[in-house]
Design a protein that fits this description.
Blueprint: E1 8-14, E2 24-31, E3 42-44, E4 52-54, E5 61-63, E6 71-73, E7 87-89, E8 95-101, H1 106-111, H2 121-128, H3 135-149, E9 155-160, E10 165-171, E11 175-181, E12 186-189, E13 205-207, H4 211-217, H5 229-233, H6 238-243, H7 245-255, H8 281-288, E14 318-326, E15 336-342, E16 351-354, H9 362-365, H10 376-389, H11 391-419, H12 426-457
Antiparallel strand pairs: 1-2, 1-12, 2-14, 3-6, 4-5, 7-8, 8-9, 9-10, 10-11, 11-13, 14-15, 15-16
Length: 468
């Protein structure tokens, strides 16, 4: 089996009663290794969906159902190791984000070893999203595939429709569990097993048929009067305290000011919480871009002893960030919004692309493996690299840039929502509006890059105080 790329992420989920506008939202940073990994934003048409799917990494072959749906996708540009679709919304406004790399423990691996010839993150979006008609159906289809083919890695996957949000985690090679997130709740999930209390009898849970028997047979439950899947199948290591737990701490600290445990290394933060306020896309973007601001652990507070102690959420390894929003206050034609930005999140800006289209803007669809600032991915990379070199001096430029892109794109979105019922060719109209927002992004990003260069000239060390 080919070595799979490194992908580590942070996920945020919000039910429809937890958000400011009554939409469901599933969001994730797609993080990779230190090297660049150019991403694309595409639409996959039914005729382009394979009949027989073969994984590049594991080699597994899967016969796919007839009548796939059209869907958006954010694949890797270089598909030498597979598609890695990552995120998307299909034509029935069902969303999927795959995957969040998670952890487990030695006992789980001993009982149900990972399967070298199984499915993995490379495959999941492509073999699931085109064939589902609800979020719950996504859970059940992926669960069946996991049981049939097994998996070679541990992942968390989220699904949503206009009414519900579901989160599934794989357990060992063939097992899995999923939870419906309550409508009034949110989740912040780092790279560890996240699901805690689990009710096998609830209508809001699903799992592999023998999971309960497996726990009983091997005496896996350490708790007296509860079934906590994180305690049973998860990890609780020193690496978790530094790499994972602090991300949950900071996210929950943002959404809940009364957080009772103010310890970044605490290992038992609740999986599901209710926020102090209605959550917006801007709130999710802030958390997914964060680097422990206003704490002793801020990555840019170089005078603090805590600087750099914990793995931040916004990081140089961010390849893209998406917020998949299914709205309930508009017509189905414009309900699905695939918010997207490339590169490190601390320095990028989300664009609210409509998902009900047949094509995507060239600057986001096309890219290259080598540097090319005419493409959105590389332009974002350029902004982040320069901005990071002198964060405090460039802060105003960065903030104004994100505000400008967001406000201008939201204005386009408001106008589009108002005009959609007058359109005879909805998909074509939405493609034009997406192009308008892509143009705003590229123009404003180029202007911000110019402002960084201009200011940077005055910050150079290669200077002398005497003029001619």
């Amino acid at each position: 089996m080919t070595q799979k790329p490194i992908k580590t992420c942070t996920t945020i989920l919000a039910g429809k009663d937890a958000t400011i506008d009554g939409s469901t939202m599933i969001a994730r940073n797609e993080d990779g290794g230190e090297q660049s990994n150019p991403q694309r934003f595409v639409v996959v048409q039914p005729e382009d969906q394979p009949k027989t799917y073969q994984s590049k990494i594991s080699g597994v072959k899967i016969e796919l159902p007839d009548h796939p749906l059209r869907y958006t996708s954010t694949p890797d540009f270089d598909q030498g190791q597979g598609i890695w679709g990552g995120s998307g919304i299909n034509e029935e406004n069902i969303a999927m984000t795959a995957c969040e790399t998670i952890t487990s423990n030695a006992m789980t691996h001993a009982i149900d070893p990972l399967v070298k010839g199984g499915i993995g993150e490379e495959d999941m979006l492509t073999i699931v999203l085109p064939y589902i008609h609800s979020a719950e159906e996504g859970v059940l289809r992926l669960g069946q595939l996991l049981e049939q083919y097994g998996t070679y890695e541990l992942n968390g996957i989220a699904f949503s429709d206009k009414d519900s949000v579901w989160y599934l985690e794989t357990i060992g090679g063939h097992h899995w569990a999923a939870v419906r997130i309550p409508d009034d709740s949110y989740v912040v999930a780092p790279n560890r097993f996240n699901i805690d209390d689990f009710d096998f009898e609830s209508e809001d849970t699903h799992c592999s048929d023998d999971l309960k028997a497996l726990i009983e047979r091997y005496h896996l439950n350490p708790d007296h009067n509860r079934v906590n899947l994180r305690h049973i199948f998860g990890s609780d290591t020193v690496k978790d305290t530094l790499y994972n737990n602090a991300r949950t701490w900071y996210g929950q600290r943002y959404f809940n000011q009364d957080n009772t445990v103010d310890d970044p290394e605490y290992s038992d933060f609740p999986f599901i919480r209710r926020a102090d306020f209605k959550i917006s896309v801007a709130d999710i973007k802030f958390v997914l871009s964060s680097h422990y601001q206003n704490t002793p652990y801020d990555m840019y507070d170089f005078d603090s002893e805590g600087q750099g102690k914990y793995r931040p959420i916004g990081i140089n390894r961010n390849q893209e960030v998406h917020v998949l929003q299914i709205r309930n206050d508009v017509s189905d034609a414009v309900a699905g919004i695939h918010w997207l930005a490339f590169g490190p999140n601390t320095f990028n800006a989300l664009v609210p692309f409509y998902a009900n289209v047949n094509d995507t803007p060239a600057a986001f669809k096309d890219t290259t493996t080598t540097y090319s600032p005419n493409h959105a991915y590389w332009l974002s990379r350029t902004l982040s690299t320069i901005s990071d070199a002198n964060y405090s001096s460039y802060l105003d430029i960065r903030d104004h840039y994100e505000d400008d892109v967001t406000s201008q794109c939201l204005r386009v979105q408001m106008d589009t929502d108002d005009q959609i019922d007058k359109q005879t060719d909805v998909e074509k109209y939405l493609e034009q509006q997406n192009q308008q927002m892509a143009d705003i992004y590229m123009k404003r990003s180029t202007e911000a890059l110019g402002a960084l260069v201009e200011k940077g000239m005055y910050l150079m060390h290669l200077r002398y105080n005497l003029d001619d």
